[in-house]
Design goal:
single chain, mainly alpha, MetI-like fold
Length: 282
Amino acid sequence: MRGLAMRGRLNAGLVAGGALVAVVVLAALVSFVWTPYDPTLVDAAAKLHEPGGGHLLGADKFGRDTLSQLMVGARTTLYVGIVAVGIAALLGTPLGVLAGMTPRGWLSELVMRVNDLVFAFPALLLAVMLGAVYGAGTLTAMIAIGVATVPAFARVARAATLQVMVTDYVLAARAAGRRGGAVALRHVLPNISSVLIVQASVSFAIAILAEAALSFLGFGTRPPTPSWGRMLQESQELLFSTPRLALWPGLAVALAVLGFNLLGDGLRDFLDPKLRRIRADG
């Protein structure tokens, strides 16, 4: 009975996270075909328009509709997150699997030391460096966040690979003469996919925060493309007189990050059979 209650709570967290993520994704998808107003339209007559009437969430200091900016900002955030996490997964997973399959070799040691070196550079510093060379923008933010997240995927993939490599079916495959590439594709990757999915969800939350921070500091998405981080930056001079300008984008970032974190935790509990048995026995 206790185990059922625990699973119910876990499912509730997974459902709550999935619902929050679904709202963000739905807003982004709808923004492709409809927004209340053009999010880049400057309307002096609607400057600082209060919520209600023609502007459901009000308008900013330039008269741009807040709801429209939030919807298109969700699209920008998801775009950056998908590309950044994709970069991290495509680079980090093969490196982690390679290091895990040759734990005592010089190649594994080299991969992990380079991994530690990259881990020492935060996404913000990397974005500043790339921005100085190539110019600030969405592409710079995606590359910086993606490269900075590679070590997380490499470490998770390596730890999971080390566990898979000592299983009977992998030992049998190696004894039968299967090459390393075949073992990795047929036995290792399918069995570590669950932890990679969880890592992707958690990394997506980190990417959302990083993109908002970079846009806030001027190293992310450039005007006139709406971004939650730049909406926060533009609202800071009116923070005390019109706090709602910072409330809506701040709430959007918080809920999106919470959603992906809850989704990641829920997926971890759902996909990990050992964790499910432990909680059920408890």
